[in-house]
């Protein structure tokens, strides 16, 4: 059984505080996630001073500042990330961070991360895709806001620059925070798998935990979900994130679903085998039957337990002669 990779997305929910980032790493570890993921970028290289905030950011932040001003307030430095990576190593959770500019790609390339995570907003960034592909590190790419042709074009850049399809995973995603249920379109995840022949998963921005759990049941191999210390904190992503107890519940549910999925084989399991005799039925006497009487529809019936002749042999038994007396409800013998 392949274990689902669970990425606890801390993102920028540290609000620019290294200590809060460390606490988020603690929460991800305690919840049982495989990775805790952050976002690394130099704001002035990522965002134009003229870029406005998204509607959800304006609503959640509660101000009219520019997107650059907002991100500058909640960013960590490269030195912070170096310390944060060491802390993750100490507590035993794997570290990931998404780079949002070229220097951040270079910086994170020295971290020995298992994957480079490409966010939805960079799927159409050819120089960025090329640079990451040339590192030769496996890639997980979110596909929010993407048409199939855009995904196809991005995959071509990645494969033309050294990555194999086997080293690329696509995450179905909707880039709205929170995502309305009618926009989740979860079946599109398997369309990505069929169309591009890659591993697939789901990056979730809905409220609650039911959609990522459903994604696992549908075959997701990777789940990414935002989490926070407290949904009421100020910042763009807190309100659409899970609190610690919710993250733990999601991880536990996914691990249970992994086990429950089992194999494609339909078998009688060890746990249920003992109940066959209890739950199934046998052919029994509907009333007292004397030796020499013929078994008929009137003097036979079907009742529990299932330790006698199976009712599937009913037609075989009807018309035979009783070899001895049977009391009402006794199992028939032939």
In DSSP terms (H or I, runs of 4 or more residues), the helix count works out at: 14
CATH topology of the largest domain: TIM Barrel
* CATH class type of the largest domain: Alpha Beta
Strand content: 15-25%
Overall outline: elongated
Q: Radius of gyration, Cα only, in angstroms?
A: 29 Å
Task: Indicate the CATH architecture of the largest domain.
Answer: Alpha-Beta Barrel
Most strands sheet? 8 strands, parallel
Q: How far is the first residue's CA from the last residue's CA?
A: 47 Å
Reading the helices and strands in chain order gives EHEHHHHEHEHEHEHEHEHHHEEH
Domain count: the total is 2
User: Helicity range of the residues?
Assistant: 25-40%
Low-confidence stretches: none
- Strand line-up of the largest beta sheet: 3-2-1-8-7-6-5-4
List keywords for this structure.
alpha/beta, elongated, TIM Barrel, 36% helix, 334 residues
Give a quick summary of the entry.
By secondary structure, the protein is an alpha/beta fold.
Would you kindly provide a written description of the structure presented here, covering whatever features stand out?
Helices cover 36% and strands 15% of the residues. The model has no long low-confidence stretch (mean pLDDT 96). The protein has 334 residues and is of the alpha/beta class. It has 2 domains: 5-261, TIM Barrel (Alpha-Beta Barrel), CATH 3.20.20; 270-317, Antifreeze-like/N-acetylneuraminic acid synthase C-terminal domain (Type Iii Antifreeze Protein Isoform Hplc 12). The strands form 2 sheets. It has an 8-stranded parallel sheet with strand order 3-2-1-8-7-6-5-4. A two-stranded antiparallel ribbon has the order 9-10. The longest helix is centred in the last third of the chain and has 18 residues, at 244-261. It has helices spanning 18-31, 43-46, 55-61, 67-73, 78-91, 102-108, 126-133, 148-160, 188-196, 210-217, 244-261, 270-273, 276-279, 314-317, and strands at residues 5-11, 35-40, 94-99, 116-118, 139-142, 168-173, 199-204, 222-226, 282-285, 300-303. The radius of gyration is 29 Å and the shape is elongated. α1 (18-31) runs parallel beside α11.
